[in-house]
C-alpha cells in the first residue's frame, strides 16, 4: 500500500469505522493471559479512560500486532506486540 498514496485518506475520516470494528480490550485479556503485565500497564497509563480501551488487529510484515484504541474517539493510543487473533 505505501506505493499507492492516491488511496490515502486522513485518519479522522475513518475513525468512526475504527470504533465500529474495534473490540473491547477485555475480550483480548481473557484470551491472552500471558500478556497480563502489558494490560495492567495500559490500565495504569490510561487510568482515566481504561473502561473505553479497545483493540484492533494490525497486520505487519513479520508479526501481527494489536492496536489499542480509545473506543470513544478512535484515537490510537499504542501498538503492542500481542497476537490479536482471538
Instruction: State the separation between the terminal residues, measured CA to CA.
Output: 26 Å
- Radius of gyration over all CA atoms, rounded: 14 Å
* Count of distinct strands: 4
What is the N-to-C succession of helices and strands? HEHHEEE
- Average pLDDT value? 93
Total domains = 1
| Number of alpha- plus pi-helical segments | 3
Multimeric state = single chain
Task: Report the helical percentage.
Answer: 25-40%
* Cα shape: globular
* Main pleated sheet: 4 strands, antiparallel
Query: How big a fraction of the residues is strand?
Result: 15-25%
Can you describe what's shown?
It is built from 3 helices and 4 strands; from the N terminus they run H-E-H-H-E-E-E. The chain is an alpha+beta fold. It has one domain (5-80). The chain has a 4-stranded antiparallel β-sheet with strand order 1-2-3-4. Strand 2 (53-58) and strand 3 (65-70) form a beta hairpin. It is globular, with a radius of gyration of 14 Å. 14% of the residues are buried. The mean pLDDT is 93.
Keywords:
86 residues; alpha+beta; four-stranded antiparallel sheet; 3 helices
Blueprint (SSEs and pairs):
Elements: H1 11-21, E1 23-24, H2 25-31, H3 36-45, E2 53-58, E3 65-70, E4 76-80
Antiparallel strand pairs: 1-2, 2-3, 3-4
Summarize the structure.
The protein is of the alpha+beta class and 86 residues long. The chain is built from 3 helices and 4 strands, in the order H-E-H-H-E-E-E.
Amino acid at each position: 500500500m505505501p506505493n499507492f498514496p492516491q488511496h490515502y485518506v486522513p485518519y479522522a475520516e475513518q475513525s468512526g469505522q475504527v470504533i465500529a470494528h474495534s473490540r473491547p480490550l477485555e475480550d483480548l485479556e481473557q484470551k491472552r493471559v500471558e500478556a497480563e503485565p502489558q494490560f495492567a500497564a495500559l490500565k495504569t497509563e490510561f487510568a482515566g479512560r481504561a473502561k473505553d480501551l479497545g483493540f484492533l488487529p494490525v497486520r505487519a510484515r513479520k508479526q501481527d500486532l494489536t492496536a489499542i484504541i480509545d473506543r470513544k474517539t478512535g484515537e490510537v493510543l499504542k501498538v503492542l506486540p500481542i497476537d490479536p487473533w482471538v
